[in-house]
């Protein structure tokens, strides 16, 4: 595969083992494939079930597929930074909610529930539900972390 850079476009030449070659022109993200004679090449795939049916002059792998696989400029970036940071923040929140009683008391204080309740201390059920909520938050953070790496 040969790459040549021009002012307005980039050309790639893909040569197969049987001697056929194609030229792929990238004009600002639009890929056009030309055959040996310089004519635009339109490739159509026919499938029977999950298997591709190859014609008499069809190539097994299209030239644009080979070019996209060969150059990292055309491969999509993986991961999502915002989701990754969100997962880490959610994990820290869930861990603090599960582990630290002072964090549970702080959340009870800023929730202002102590104003309209009879007892101004959190109940045992509040502590239990905080720990359960912390576990749920950690599980959600782990699933978001896995999803953020696969985007």
Element layout with pairings:
Elements: E1 2-5, E2 10-15, E3 21-27, E4 30-34, E5 46-48, E6 51-53, H1 63-70, H2 81-99, H3 101-110, H4 113-116, H5 124-150
Antiparallel strand pairs: 1-2, 2-3, 3-4, 5-6
Transmembrane segments: 81-100, 125-146
Keywords: Membrane, Transmembrane, Transmembrane helix
Domain DUF6199: 87-146
Your description of this structure?
The chain crosses the membrane at residues 81-100, 125-146. InterPro entries: DUF6199. The protein has 151 residues and is of the alpha+beta class. The chain has a four-stranded antiparallel beta sheet, with helices on one face. Strands 5-6 form a two-stranded antiparallel ribbon. The mean pLDDT is 85. α2 runs antiparallel to α5 (124-150). It folds into two domains: 2-74, no CATH class; 81-150, no CATH class. The chain has five helices and six strands, in the order ββββββααααα. It is elongated.
Form type: elongated
Approximately how much helix is present in the residues?
A: 40-55%
What is the straight-line distance between the termini? 29 Å
SSE series: EEEEEEHHHHH
- What is the radius of gyration computed over CA atoms, rounded to a whole number of angstroms? 29 Å
Strand residue content:
15-25%
Poorly predicted tracts of residues: none
Structural class: alpha+beta
Counted beta strands:
6
Summed up, the domain count is 2
Major β-sheet profile: 4 strands, antiparallel
Strand order of the largest sheet: 1-2-3-4
Question: Helical element count?
Answer: 5
Indicate the mean pLDDT. Answer: 85
């Amino acid at each position: 595969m040969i790459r040549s850079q021009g002012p307005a476009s980039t050309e790639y030449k893909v040569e197969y083992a049987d001697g056929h070659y194609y030229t792929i022109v990238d004009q600002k993200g639009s890929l056009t494939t030309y055959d040996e004679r310089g004519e635009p090449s339109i490739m159509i795939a026919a499938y029977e079930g999950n298997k591709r049916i190859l014609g008499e002059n069809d190539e097994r792998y299209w030239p644009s597929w080979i070019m996209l696989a060969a150059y990292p400029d055309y491969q999509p970036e993986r991961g999502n930074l915002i989701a990754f940071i969100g997962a880490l923040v959610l994990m820290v929140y869930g861990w603090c909610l599960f582990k630290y009683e002072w964090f549970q008391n702080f959340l009870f204080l800023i929730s202002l529930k102590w104003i309209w309740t009879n007892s101004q201390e959190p109940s045992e059920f509040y502590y239990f539900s905080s720990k359960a909520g912390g576990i749920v938050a950690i599980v959600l953070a782990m699933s978001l972390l896995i999803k953020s790496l696969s985007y």
